[in-house]
């Protein structure tokens, strides 16, 4: 494997403008994240046009800061990597165009990165964790269980049929009046709630089915809320949040463990924004210990969208010979393969 390849990774697929300098796919030299959450929260979710405009305003300074913090200049960058999908098309185009222009200007290779592959690659950052492993990716836009056979080699074992796990967190939080983004708010308030108060339904729980569905759960929570409100019952937000969260954690953790058993792989990991969830981490740690599995948790800052995971995925693509043309377009509905 080549040593000392320095990749600049750029991520703008949703509401984080991020740039990072990573050495050899693992060593994070800098990771600058400008989050637009404060701008979007008053709308209760990400407004695509506003996101694109803010990426344009932020990208230059974010990249400059990433170079500065890594103590490098553009002349030290060997490869530029940027997310080209999936995500919001206008948002993607900002980072993608910026990355391609930098690569062209400095005459270095450009690699377009699949955002989902980026989330998986967060597992390699500041770590010696390596494939093969089974990975649960649960974010605002995606929920997958993937067999990572080797770098860049994936077999999707299951995916969501409707809402992504993070989307369910956000929608339920909104119904509970907790604001955006819902995941961290539900995580926090659940600590003071009773997770056994409500027994909401779980989907696709039959053996060897690794697909998910969260829209029935979301509807069940909203229906129960309406019923209680109509009957004048005082809503205990913490109990709702805790019962909902436990349902999602039960489903995600049991499916990840079952998928690992199904494939006879003893290494598991998680990725994506929902992987920051404290109950999910606690539960998986316990289950992995019981099963004798090795479990790897990326640092929380590498779970939500960031440039470092994109630089890592770009590095492993590059050393396998992948270089993208400068005509690469954004692909909003890009699949893992
Ligand atoms: O990976 P990410 O930053 O962006 C996408 O690619 O979608 O994930 C954002 C999602 C949001 O839905 C957010 O509510 C959720 O991750 N999230 C969490 C937590 N922190 C972020 N969900 C549950 N618990 C958390 N602690
Ligand atoms: Zn993401």
Task: Explain this structure.
The chain is of the alpha/beta class and 337 residues long. It is 42% helix and 19% strand. Helix 4 (115-121) packs across helix 10 (307-319). The longest helix has 27 residues, at 237-263. The radius of gyration is 20 Å and the shape is globular. The protein starts with 5 loop residues before the first strand and ends in an 18-residue tail after the last helix. 51% of the residues are buried. The site of zinc ion has 5 residues, from helix 4.
How would you briefly describe this protein structure?
The chain has ten helices and ten strands.
Describe the secondary-structure layout:
Blueprint (H helix, E strand, L loop, with lengths): L5 E6 L4 E8 L3 E9 L1 H4 L7 H22 L9 E7 L3 H18 L3 E5 H7 L11 E6 L4 E8 L2 E7 L5 H11 L6 H9 L24 H16 L6 H27 L3 E5 L6 H14 L2 E3 L10 H13 L18
Parallel strand pairs: 1-4, 4-5, 6-9, 9-10
Antiparallel strand pairs: 1-2, 2-3, 6-7, 7-8
The protein binds 5'-O-[(R)-(carboxyoxy)(hydroxy)phosphoryl]adenosine and zinc ion (ZN).
């Amino acid at each position: 494997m080549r040593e000392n390849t320095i990749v600049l990774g750029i991520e703008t697929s949703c509401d984080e403008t991020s740039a990072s300098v990573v050495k050899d796919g693992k060593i994070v030299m800098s990771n600058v994240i400008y989050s637009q959450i404060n701008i979007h929260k008053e709308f209760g979710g990400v407004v695509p046009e506003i996101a694109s405009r803010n990426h344009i305003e932020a990208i230059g300074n974010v990249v400059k800061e990433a170079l500065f913090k890594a103590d490098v200049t553009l002349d030290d960058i060997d490869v530029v990597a940027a997310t080209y999908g999936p995500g919001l098309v206008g948002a993607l185009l900002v980072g993608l165009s910026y990355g391609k222009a930098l690569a062209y200007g400095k005459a270095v290779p450009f690699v377009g990165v699949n955002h989902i592959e980026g989330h998986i690659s967060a597992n390699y950052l500041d770590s010696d964790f390596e494939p093969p492993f089974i990975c649960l990716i649960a974010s605002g836009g995606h929920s997958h269980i993937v067999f990572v056979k080797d770098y860049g080699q994936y077999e999707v074992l299951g995916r969501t049929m409707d809402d992504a796990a993070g989307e369910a967190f956000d929608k339920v939080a909104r119904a509970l009046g907790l604001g955006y983004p819902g995941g961290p708010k539900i995580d926090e308030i659940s600590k003071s709630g009773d997770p056994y108060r409500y027994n909401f339904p779980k989907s696709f729980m039959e053996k060897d089915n690794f697909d998910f569905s969260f829209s029935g759960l979301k509807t069940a929570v909203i229906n129960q809320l309406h019923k209680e409100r109509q009957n004048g019952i005082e809503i205990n937000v913490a109990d709702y949040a805790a019962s909902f969260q436990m349902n999602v954690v039960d489903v995600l953790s049991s499916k990840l463990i079952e998928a690992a058993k199904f494939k006879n792989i003893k290494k598991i990991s998680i990725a994506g924004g929902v992987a920051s969830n404290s109950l999910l981490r606690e539960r998986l740690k316990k289950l992995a210990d019981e099963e004798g599995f090795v479990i790897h948790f990326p640092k929380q800052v590498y779970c939500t969208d960031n440039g470092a995971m994109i630089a890592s995925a770009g590095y492993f693509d590059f050393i396998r010979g992948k270089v993208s043309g400068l005509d690469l377009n954004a692909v909003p509905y890009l699949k893992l393969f």
